Amino acid sequence: MVSLERFRWWHVEEVLPIERHLFGVEPWTAHHFWSELGQVTTRHYVVAVDEGAVVGYAGLCDYPDEAFVQTMAVAPAHQGQGLGAALLLDLLQEAERRGQRKTLLEVRADNEVAQRLYARHGFRQTSVRRGYYPGGVDAWVMERT
Ligand SMILES: CC(C)(COP(=O)(O)OP(=O)(O)OC[C@H]1O[C@@H](n2cnc3c(N)ncnc32)[C@H](O)[C@@H]1OP(=O)(O)O)[C@@H](O)C(=O)NCCC(=O)NCCS
Questions:
Q1: Would you identify the CATH topology of the domain 2-102?
Q2: Cα(56)–Cα(78) distance, rounded to whole angstroms?
Q3: Is 0.70 surpassed by the pTM of this model?
Q4: Residue 61: pLDDT band with limits 50, 70, 90
Q5: Which of 36, 47, 57, 103 is 20 to 30 A distant from 15 in Cα terms?
Q6: What separation in Å is there between the alpha carbon of 81 and the centre of ligand 1?
Q7: Is residue 66 among the annotated active site residues?
Q8: How is the chain split into domains, by residue range?
Q9: Which H, E and C letters describe 95-123, residue by residue?
Q10: How far apart are CA 99 and CA 108, in angstroms?
Q11: Ligand 1 test: best mutation among 69, 70, 117, 137, most atoms within 8 Å of CB?
Q12: What is the pLDDT of residues 7-49, one digit of tens each?
């Protein structure tokens, strides 16, 4: 049984191997996660926990006029079971709770699984950042209003 919990400092060490596995070229470091979690008023981070083990995580930034999906990840063995959708819905509920009318994100142009997940939840591609990711891969900017 998987539950969603607030992402706390003691989850960081457990999240790092998942982060390195999924975002190999440019993973976030412990410092990056610490920095995010430290910005308590503008950030909302959540972990998915299965029998005590962290199997996914996601984070939202609350800017003055829009929310932004900072990160979203599900450990490979747990993908395809609806966890990505559950994490995303949690972020969207938080954005709504904070009165945001617009939520944005960036996703690699070659990441069709994530793009489909976002599209199913109302995100539409609005622009492209050319060569944004390592290796020159484009970023799609997607927006949900
Ligand atoms: C993108 C990512 C977070 C999606 O997580 P996920 O848990 O696999 O997402 P979901 O299970 O909610 O949905 C993914 C697929 O599984 C399917 N699925 C959902 N519930 C399911 C279930 N119970 N049984 C089988 N399949 C299911 C969905 O229909 C979807 O398939 P589709 O896109 O072909 O329609 C995950 O693939 C990931 O961590 N990728 C690497 C990191 C990454 O790309 N992050 C996003 C950066 S922008």
A1: Aminopeptidase (3.40.630)
A2: 8
A3: yes
A4: very high
A5: 103
A6: 7
A7: no
A8: 2-102
A9: HHHCCCCCEEEEEECCCHHHHHHHHHCCC
A10: 28
A11: 117
A12: 999 999 999 999 999 998 889 999 999 999 999 999 999 999 9
